[in-house]
């Protein structure tokens, strides 16, 4: 992935602040353990769920059971938002990733992702039939989704600064 162009949004930033560097945003995406996935139900109501996600090859990846609400929501509307960051008002970096979720079926990519889940969280997954499977539980399979960013926002604090990252523009 080429480094996206960041635009400092002066209107929503403190005077004297600067744009957030892409390297800092990417570090948050790689190191964060918990994200919040926002999807939309078929009837238009929002749905938000916390889950781990992995940044790999310019996409943010997560898995979920096919029967879970978030998976059913993505069947009818694959557009979603993933957020992560700090719950502190005065410091940290919050990142919002908007995009479209697509199921990942490539065995090589899934194998790399399974290694990330194990290294980062200690969660072992096997790759079976284009999905993750919990070892020791043949029935529990989880499709893996990748979200390619369409738009990304980074909010730094102290001083407060908003940066918008454009992708493919």
UniProtKB/TrEMBL annotation:
Keywords from the named record: Oxidoreductase
Signal peptide: none
Domain Pyridoxamine 5'-phosphate oxidase N-terminal: 24-113
Molecular function, one GO term: oxidoreductase activity, acting on the CH-CH group of donors
GO CC term (a single one): cytosol
InterPro entries xrefs: F420H2_bilvrd_red/Heme_oxyg, Pyridox_Oxase_N, Split_barrel_FMN-bd
UniProt superkingdom: Bacteria
One of the Pfam families matching this protein, by short name: PNPOx_N
Protein name per UniProt: General stress protein 26
Organism: Saccharomonospora amisosensis
